[in-house]
User: What shape does this take?
Amino acid sequence: MFSPSTSAAPPAFLRRIDSPIGRIEVASDGESITSLSIERGGELPFDDEPEHSHPLLDRAAVQLAEYFAGDRTDFDLPVHPTGTAFQRAVWAELGRLRFGEVISYGELGHATGRATAGRAVGGAVGANPVPIIVPCHRVLASNQRITGYSGGNGIPTKVWLLDHEGIEHRS
Assistant: This one.
């Protein structure tokens, strides 16, 4: 159901944590966070792999727990998401958003120099390999509607994250 492609190698370092939105799997190359996956249908991409933590992943686990407890509003973790230059530009803009701030897909397009590339912006947002830490849940349609979410169980996961941050939205 939810497994990495057969060519995806297990990450060098892997840690799982429990959260109010399901189990979370955080991966690292030893220098930065490379991915974060939220449980979908009871499964994570590397469920069959043993955990092999690293001090950076331990730090991520603490910061995520603080975020979910309402005690943290930003993350102080190095991330290295892999993607195209355009995707990385979108993710960099997302990384500038503060706790409780929201941006529309159109505003995100303008900020990355692709004002008319709505589908490309949406695709880049949906391909974010480090959700929550790179806050793609803070992107809404211009009318504050939720148009989708690729993390966890989709829209219910996004609703939880938006509500947690006090962000007004419409489903």
About this structure: Confidence is low (pLDDT under 50) at residues 1-6. The domain at 85-164 is CATH 1.10.10.10 (Arc Repressor Mutant, subunit A). The chain has five helices and five strands.
